[in-house]
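Support request, please re-run this one:
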Amino acid sequence: MLNKLIIILILGSISQSFVILNDDSSHTVLVELGSLTTCPYCPAGIEALQELYEEQEIPFYYMTLVYDKSDVAMQRGRWLNDIYVPMLYVDGGYAVVDEATKEAYYNAIEEASKREVNNIDMNISAEWDGNDIKITLYIYNKDLSPHFEHVKICILEKVSRWKDAKGENIRYALMDYAFNGYLILKPGERKVEIKWNNDMDLKEGNTVVLAYASQAMPKLQKNPWNDPWWSSYFIAQFVDESCAVEI
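Re-run finished. Output below.
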């Protein structure tokens, strides 16, 4: 049985990547945690995920989708058809975890880290330009054939202004997309440069720029519930690679 809160979604320095790929991993996993500030079950999920992230036994980045505070997060939740929180989506929907425990999260992330993925590398750098952020993303298609990818550059607040139901600041909250588009990646290098207008008053030293590339060809995936029926399936785009910088 889902022990969840049900929701309806109608509502100046340069840094470099800080997660290191290990020999057993095919890529750096991307994790998204659906949450609400009022959800009594969400703090356990947030704490478990943060502990895993700090241990770095598995290479992954994560973001928290705060549905009741961020319009961008709410739109992402609609895409995932997420109506229960906390809910963990691993690698764009390759796995969905409804048990908010460190062990359950670890197992799902570890399994995803060994997936067969398109041979794509990514490297990102970012710097403050006054109050705004200049971002440069390099994507390397190391295969011999082109890949059609959905690429996102996400702006996160590391220690969020929003608090969870226990009164703790939520970590790595999704605030906005600096880039959200589809790219045909020919073999070789692709460069994306963009300047993000900081109208959210994000601060230097508390901002993360996270990018990921997922396979544009969608897959129908199952959420871990059957009722209501209209939300039990969602369109997934499995992640090939992710990278991030703190600035």
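The chain has three helices and 16 strands. Residues 8-16 have pLDDT under 50 and may be disordered.
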